[in-house]
Write a structure and sequence with these properties.
Structural class: alpha/beta
Largest sheet: 5 strands, parallel
Distance between the termini: 27 Å
CATH class of the largest domain: Alpha Beta
CATH superfamily of the largest domain: 5'-nuclease
Radius of gyration: 15 Å
Mean pLDDT: 96
Oligomer: single chain
CATH architecture of the largest domain: 3-Layer(aba) Sandwich
CATH topology of the largest domain: Rossmann fold
Length: 153
């Protein structure tokens, strides 16, 4: 399964030291150049398994960039071009645009729940708490509680 990632989810995972969950869950993790550049501003190095791919249709990225930032725009377009199984993105506008373009999405919450279901982490609640405290990830309490119920927490 191929997943293309936007910057925010990877930043959170890198900050809490849990980026390897992605390669354990997905066959391949791909990012566009704009996402790589954004990540490198905050993280001195990136995992070797993270593949950087250039987008082909710059015109389409320009169109998307009118609605979302360039990292999101490139990630959406790359997911389309690669026919990725999922686009890992959390921002509401980016998710909406991706879905309109026929790109299936998953958020960081979905990744955490999937990791819990596959027994890659002992506690989804614990990881979400760390993401909130260490990386500043915001998640509405009702959404968090409802999601945790789906994994028995």
């Amino acid at each position: 399964m191929i997943v293309v990632s936007d910057t925010s989810p990877l930043t959170v995972l890198l900050t809490v030291g849990e980026e390897s969950l992605l390669i354990k869950l997905f066959t391949e993790v791909v990012i566009p150049e704009a996402v790589r550049n954004e990540l490198l501003r905050a993280h001195p190095s990136l995992p070797g398994w993270l593949r950087v791919v250039s987008i082909m249709d710059a015109v389409q990225v320009q169109k998307y960039s009118r609605l979302v930032d360039v990292g999101e725009a490139e990630a959406i377009e790359l997911a389309r071009e690669l026919q990725a199984d999922r686009l890992l993105i959390d921002e509401r506008k980016g998710r909406k645009l991706a879905l309109q373009e026929g790109v299936a999405v998953i958020g960081l919450l979905g990744v955490v729940l999937l990791a819990k279901r596959k027994a890659l982490i002992p506690s989804a609640r614990g990881l979400l708490d760390r993401m909130a405290v260490e990386a500043g990830m915001y998640l509405a309490d009702d959404i968090r509680d409802q999601a945790l119920k789906t994994v028995g927490e």
